[in-house]
Amino acid sequence: MTISALQAERAKYQPKLPNSLKSSVKLVEGEKTQSVADQNDIEKLFPNTYGMPLIAFEKTSEKKQYAAVNVGVILSGGQAPGGHNVISGIFDGIKNINPESKLYGFLGGPGGLVDHQYIELTATIIDEFRNTGGFDIIGSGRTKLEESAQFDKGAEILKQLNIKALIVIGGDDSNTNACVLAEYYAAKNTGIQVIGCPKTIDGDLKNDMIETSFGFDTATKVYAELIGNVERDATSAKKYWHFIKLMGRSASHIGLECALQTQPNITLISEEVAEKKQTLGEIVDYMVNIIAKRAANGENFGVALIPEGLVEFVPEMKALISELNDLLAEGSETEQKFKSFSSKTEGRAFVAGILSPTSAKVYTSLPNGIADQLTLDRDPHGNVQVSLIETEKLLGEMVKSQLKEMKKAGKFSGKLGTQYHFFGYEGRCAAPSNFDADYCYSLGYNASFLIAEGKTGYMSSVRNLTAPAAEWIAGGVPITMMMNMEQRHGHQKPVIQKALVELDSAPYKYLVANREKWAIETSFVYPGPIQYWGPSEVCDQPTKTILLERAK
User: Fold this and answer.
1) Is residue 23 part of a domain?
2) 152 lies in some domain
3) Is pLDDT of 379 > 80?
4) 115 labelled catalytic
């Protein structure tokens, strides 16, 4: 493996740990827990892992002896900065507890467990990946562990390798699967423990016990650097409005955090759009008003941040997408008819004719390119691929169209040059910030103690994250505590409840208090690249979101 000078230097970085994990630990049990909702249903589904207490580890002078343990680890879902440090933390943790312990990595995600694809992770392998981005040490995948046949196949290889515990590193869906797996293995008396670790750059896996998911800090700092660079370009060229779509389909945490770091002129929050039941036209009016006011001040430039999943939160767009999914479902008569048209124009006219009047009005108001994305770019089940919709271009083109009409009426004398960006994959595999390097290592190291103490069905929890790392609180939270029942593919299923942006939260209120000023004045902030060396106040700070949420 060829490594860069940065990687060579980062390999020397020793992540910081909470004081409670630096020597022998004492396990302290807290209150019994219950699920966030649907308590009776969740308890019936998880009789062996429901209602377990919260756990905290405290430093103790008492020396404990633990037996050697073989541990398996899985990376599940999309990449997030710091995954390699979770694994190195697990490795160092189990070796510290007992040097005879071994760590096995299942290749390509959960599918590696089912298909018995694995490697033993040795010190030589681990040392190549410390403090690096990516998931390439063992790879990841999106196979869902949902069926008993998969669980049984997994148990076969775990028993063959004498693995007593499995750690699943993933987001809300992956940890839901980990919870189901823990319950299954407990019910079958397999003796196999399952522990989860909270990963997702989207930031939607969090609660009082999981203050943030790992990777969110690094990814938003990467995006904020890019946004700051674009802002600097905008103030230099003074002729473009930049419409920037940011990753985050189900929640707007990334957009909100990046706004707090860079202070753009426009920040759209999907959850606010849904709460206010804003139409596409109202959103465009809001953006046009800001652009026109800035133009009147001689500033024909600016930056707008747009969450990836915005269109699904606009009620009229949500209804349109739902109708299209039904009307153009794979194998349906209307789908066959639609496919028979040789021109896109004929296809659009046909679709407009079969939609309800309300949805037809929305559909025909869309730029042709976006209308085509809604009907032509569909997944194997015939559903609209929302993540492929170029929302930034949709809004930009609609804004331009409205300003053109205003210009004809003499109500707008400025200019609107547009540039479009989507920042997504650029942030998923960045070298972790010091915060994420420390946090991820602590999550992994902490997981080794949860295993040593015989726990299952828990998620590794490290809290008090606005304090120095030495003062962080390590422990575990029962995964069932985060669960509720939701409709999935026509069935009620237990899932970890997604954490959306709360409109009464301190970060959102801070945005609201400042966005009128940021809209009209050029108040841009240029964060610059992630700093790995230097003063702690520059290098080790967590996100502005968590600082505002946890402000005393």
Assistant:
1) no
2) yes
3) no
4) no
Residue 519 CA to residue 514 CA, distance in Å, equals 9
Quick one: pLDDT at residue 36? 96
Domain residues for 170? Answer: 38-215+432-488
Estimate the crossing angle of helix 280-296 against helix 391-408, to 10 degrees: 60
Domain assignment present for residue 271? The answer is no
189: domain CATH number is 3.40.50.450
Hey, what are 80's tokens? 């997030």
Backbone phi, psi, residue 206, to 5°? -160, 160
pLDDT tens digits, one per residue of 45-87:
999 999 999 999 999 988 889 999 999 999 999 999 999 999 9
Count the alpha carbons within 13 Å of 308 in the hemisphere toward its beta carbon.
17
Residue 304's pLDDT band, with cuts at 50, 70 and 90, is very high
Q: 449 — phi, psi (to 5°)?
A: -75, -35
200: its two tokens = 């997702």
- The per-residue pLDDT for range 264-276, each reduced to its tens digit, is 999 999 999 999 9
Q: Which of 92, 173, 202, 217 is catalytic?
A: 202
Look at residue 133 and tell me if it is in a domain: yes
Which strands, in side-by-side order, build the sheet including 25-32? 25-32, 53-59, 473-478, 458-463, 193-198, 163-170, 70-75, 102-106, 118-120
Cα–Cα distance for residue pair 526/355, rounded to 1 Å: 46
pTM value > 0.70? yes
Contact between 331 and 293 (Cβ < 8 Å)? no
Q: How many CA atoms lie within 13 A of 547 on its CB side?
A: 13
User: Is the pLDDT reported for residue 338 higher than 70?
Assistant: yes
User: What order of strands is seen across the sheet that includes strand 266-267?
Assistant: 266-267, 302-307, 240-246, 417-423
Is 80 buried (19+), middle (13-18) or exposed (0-12) by CB count in 10 A?
buried
Res 408: pLDDT: 86
Instruction: For residues 335 and 387, give the distance between their C-alpha atoms in angstroms, rounded to a whole number.
Output: 21
The answer to whether residues 280 and 315 touch, using CB atoms and an 8 Å cutoff, is no
Give the residue among 422, 30, 51 at the shortest CA–CA distance from 254.
422
Number of domains within the chain:
1
